[in-house]
Amino acid sequence: MKQYIVDAFTNRVFSGNPAAVCVMDKWPEEKLMMLIAEENNLSETAFIVKEEAGYHLRWFTPGTEVELCGHATLASAFVMLNYYEKNSNQIEFNTLSGKLTVVRKGNLYEMDFPTYELKEIPVTVAMEEAFGIRPIKAVLGLDLVCVFENEEIVRNMNPDQNLLMKIEGRIQNATAQGKNTDCVSRSFCPKLTIPEDPVCGSAHCQIADYWSRVLGKDNIIAYQASKRGGTLHCHLTKNGRIQISGEAILFAITEIQE
Which helix (H) or strand (E) holds 131? Predict the structure, then answer.
């Protein structure tokens, strides 16, 4: 089985968010896919099989299969458009979140994702204890998004992972408006065995949507301030979806010995 390691949302290796992409002729047992994801120990391993209906894409963390992953979709599109569909600038994937289209535009790969209804919820003592500082607002969509007063708080945050496990929400995100970008965020996912996701594309289906409403603009440039860091170009469309674009770069091509 051929596997590609791609750094997503960056043009430099050792930055952005690394994802493994396995391209296969047929589906292996789910247990094997979980073992491969655990062995890679990356936030996501993507698996792609070409079926009659087109390319089928699935994503696995080291702990479970997930419904949506931005950076691994970007990495998958990078692999397919550069190594398998070289004459095309567009690729479609069938996924648990429906059909996802990625378009290559120069150095950027533009993904078309759904947005989610965001509902403001009360800020709790548990949130304050987990992050070490009280959020000024909390909203819940697919994930929990906690908003803080400034980007320095987000950049310097060192949350208690054990306490984060007790907070409602599939993934915990911390975000603030940025100085040189529209927003700065970090993403913590202990329930998925990922202490911190370096650059989370799917989280920005909510983060960029939130800041688009707050700032009154359709185009949001977002920076995820993890140790590796990465930039996301987000555009809110009129049909309730979001286009998230980023660069990607190949780190390695390997052969998995099944």
Answer: helix 125-131
